[in-house]
Each structure stands twice: as structure tokens, then as C-alpha cells.
Amino acid sequence: MNDNVILLAHGAGGKKSAELIHSLFLQYFDNPVLNNLGDSAILNARPGQLAFTTDSFVVDPLFFPGGDIGKLAVCGTVNDLAAVGARPIALSTAFILEEGLKLETLEQVVASMGTVTGELGISIVAGDTKVVPHGSADKMFITTSGIGYLSENQKPPAPNRAKPGDIVLVSGTIGEHGMAVMLAREGIEFSTNIESDCAPLWGLVSSMLETASDIHCLRDPTRGGLAAALNELAVQSGVCIEIEESAIPVNEDVRVACELLGIDPLHVANEGKIIAIVPKDDAEAVLETMKAHPLGKHAEIIGCVKSSPAGRVHLRTPMGTLRILDIPSGDILPRIC
Questions:
Q1: How far is CA 256 from CA 192, 292, 304, in A?
Q2: Is the pLDDT assigned to residue 301 strictly greater than 50?
């Protein structure tokens, strides 16, 4: 082992740990709260509601077209906050590092996290690092938690608020993230590269909430893709969601890749898309707002909400037939997030 790789001592709380904190994490996560290096971060409180979420990221490979595990960790947590209409305030992060990981690799990931949080104007205010012996983990795992803010009277979107008559929208083409990671992992090349859609959605969601203050449901369709997310919303709201297959935007390269591999793009994960269920009278205005944002330019209305059968998602095919769109069985694409 040499000084260019992660050693067990980097997680032992001694000199090596301090060197890692000061030479790497504080370089990219620099902010007054974190720089105190206290046991807890002290944040200013204000009237209103707080949203709090946490998620772990174990993606393989660490770097993939369109992103990396660091960008994914920040975007995933910010998007979970955005899905309840919460403006992100601060994040914490914890690293599980495998002994022998190149310091250069860790620095690339940390720099990526610093870039995304900087663009969002938020800070990573607390963190932790553990190092496990070589062979006890796969290079690097990251856990991020996030706090978001909602105003005192804001009624947040929730998965149980879809109502019959509502309209279903999606912010863009689906399936890019899952296919990009899987193709990178397996070394499969297509004539046109597929890139992950990994992106922080708060800016898009914020503009949608300004257009329609009472959006009933928001959900980022990550693991299990569009099919799983819609089924969760249908079950929790006790409604039927009917979508038009021909209206669902799918990148042509993703469609071809899915056909070759026998995978339904409706089951493939996304990391930069949002599903919105809105009152019918707000649908066109919300769609227009989404299309005006760079992350929503391919947004489409894809269906509507009906009263029955409760808990079901129906897919109307281009032939006009109706079939049940179920939750995918098993883990179709493991370690994609």
C-alpha cells in the first residue's frame, strides 16, 4: 500500500483521517457549518415545515456516461426532497471505502459532489468516513441524507393524493440511466452512446409549483422505472391510472437497446425525471412550464386518473387494447443507483 490509495488508517480517526478531511473533503465541501468540524451541524431554523430523507448508493461502475456515484448521491437525495415540494437546504454524506481504493478516484467523486451542490447553492454540512479491509466492499458506497424546506401553509404533493380526473405527466424520455449504467458495466457499445439522465430536479419542480400550487403527486421514477412508480401512486391513492403507450417519450437508442436485451423501458430506472399528477385544469399550464425548462423539454401528458379498478395501472397500446402494467418482478438491473 502507498499514500495514493485508501488505507485502513484513513478511517481510524487518527492523523490519516484528519489529513483526508482537511486535504480532500473540506477542499470540495468548504462551508462555514462543515468547517467547524463539530459532532453535529447547527442550522438556522425558520417557521415552516421540514422534509428529511436518506438514501444509499452502491452503483457499479462508479463512473458511467452522464454521471458518477457522487453526482448520483447528491441528485438522488435532492430529487427525493423535490418530490414532496421541498427546497433542499443541506445534505450530510457518509462514505464506506474499500482499502486500496485510489485516492484519485475518491477525489473525482468528491469533486463531482462539490460541483453539483455548488450549482444548487446548498452545502454538505456533516459527514463520516469508514474504511473496510480489501474485499469487504466494492470500492465505494455513499449514503446521503438531506433536509428540505416547505413554507408553513404549503400543502405538499403526496403519493396518496391522486384523484379521478387528474392528468398524468412525465418530464421527459425514460430509461436512460438504467441502460447507461448497464451498458457501461457490461462493456456493450452502440453506434450512439446512451447517457444517464442523472440531474437535480429542484429547479424544474420549483417552476412547476409556481405554475400550479396544488400539484397532487410528484414521484421520481428510479428503481423499477415508470411502471413501479405509477403502481405505487395508484395503490397509495386508491385509484386506477391509465396511460397511453404511444404518448410515453422514449429515446430511440434506449428503445433499440431495450429491444435487443429483452427489457421493457417502462421498468428501467431514471435519475433525472419526475412524474406529476395534477388537476385537469392545471395540466396544460404545467406541461408548458415543464417544456420551458431544460430538464423538461421532452415532457408529455401520458395519461389520466380513473376511479376504478383501484390500485391498478392500465396501459393502452397503439392498437387500442388495454393491458395491466404491473410492477417489475425481481431486480431487473441491480446496482444501478
A1: 11, 28, 27
A2: yes
